[in-house]
Write a structure and sequence with these properties.
This protein is α/β, with parallel strands linked by helices and 338 residues long. The protein contains 12 helices and 11 strands. It has an 8-stranded parallel sheet with strand order 1-5-6-7-8-9-10-11. A 3-stranded antiparallel sheet has the order 2-3-4, with no helix packed on it. It is globular and about 55 Å long.
């Protein structure tokens, strides 16, 4: 029997949605414009943002491609530009409802192939918690996807904490994805926001949660970070050293060594380098690393799980990376998918 493969990092959009500028009365929204069969443009106020293909919205295409790659289950989350944290909270809630209903519908139709994560209007904690409760208790989603910051508020901010606390109480998994990367004004060329900014964003979100005591105060919170935790694994030594030599600056909220939190949160295995993944397994343990491909986008892994399967790892380690860690993060049983 083949090893179960669960891809925790995939993005999906509805096949269409209303004209949001007309719906809400102001601009800044993303639209999907079809350009021939199986091809669409995502536009932002009429300007081209990204080209997407049918595998971004058509679950039948997704399942066919998953079959070709040997992927049994995908965890679905929206594309980060859809977060809309900048918008009026009521409008962001309305859009989140549309996106979450779509994902829940795909999961309900194919429960052995897909797991769903919702999106929330994080700019308003009360509305976010209300939609979180609906996602988990009514729609049956397994958790949420959030950005690496909320309009500049790091993930230890007092306005973010109540939502994370509610996730812990409800048993909802949290997937943190970088967006609106810091330093973008200096990264106009070479795709640097995606190559440099995203790893920095993810490291910043992890360090904020560690130094801000979020993991300490919410021991039951299950969080996974995209792209192998970004730059964090490569800089944990520096973070630990800073904690030791300048506790007056680093330990002002949480007095525990940041290294103590290795294994406390999950990361995906999307690092594109066997040496890096080997280091991460040694550093953090395979128990907290899960296969993730960033499907269907080009910076992701073309064949999900190929890096893991190409490495000389014990079968038990491969099984953990390919599905065991995902099931632990999501708090789901393997029997649901086998």
């Amino acid at each position: 029997m083949p090893v179960l493969k669960i891809d925790i990092h995939t993005h999906i959009l509805p096949p269409d949605w209303p004209n949001l500028k007309e719906r809400y009365g102001y601009g800044g929204w993303v639209q999907l414009e079809r350009h021939g069969p199986g091809c669409s443009h995502m536009t932002l106020d009429g300007s081209f943002f990204r080209e997407v293909e049918a595998n971004c919205w058509d679950e039948q295409v997704r399942m066919s491609e998953c079959d070709g790659h040997g992927v049994h289950v995908q965890v679905l989350s929206t594309v980060p530009i859809m977060f809309s944290y900048w918008a009026k909270a009521a409008d962001a809630l309305d859009l989140a409802t549309l996106l979450n209903d779509h994902i829940a519908g795909v999961v309900a139709e194919h429960p052995r192939r897909f797991i769903g994560l919702g999106t929330l209007p994080m700019q308003d904690p009360d509305l976010a918690i209300r939609e979180l409760e609906r996602c988990v208790q009514k729609l049956g989603l397994s958790g949420i996807e959030i950005g690496s910051h909320i309009n500049g508020m790091n993930l230890d901010h007092p306005d973010v904490y109540p939502v994370l606390e509610a996730c812990a109480e409800l048993g909802a998994a949290v997937f943190v994805h970088p967006w609106e990367m810091l330093g973008r004004e200096r990264m106009g060329k070479y795709w640097l926001p995606w190559l440099v900014g995203m790893p920095a964003e993810t490291s910043l979100s992890i360090c904020s949660m560690i130094f801000g005591g979020v993991f300490e105060r919410l021991p039951d919170l299950r969080v996974a970070f995209a792209h192998g935790g970004g730059a964090f694994p490569a800089t944990i030594g520096r973070s630990e050293h800073g904690f030791k030599v300048r506790p007056d600056l680093c330990a002002v909220v949480n007095e525990r060594n940041p290294r103590d939190y290795l294994g406390r949160f999950f990361v995906d295995a999307l690092v594109h380098d066997p040496l890096m993944l080997s280091y991460m397994i040694e550093l953090m343990g395979a128990d907290c690393i899960a296969m993730g491909s960033d499907y269907p986008f080009p910076l992701g892994e073309t064949v999900p799980g190929q890096l893991i399967e190409s490495m000389d790892l014990a079968l038990a380690v491969k099984e953990r990376l390919l599905s065991g860690s995902a099931l632990a993060w999501l708090d789901l049983e393997r029997e649901r998918f086998t």
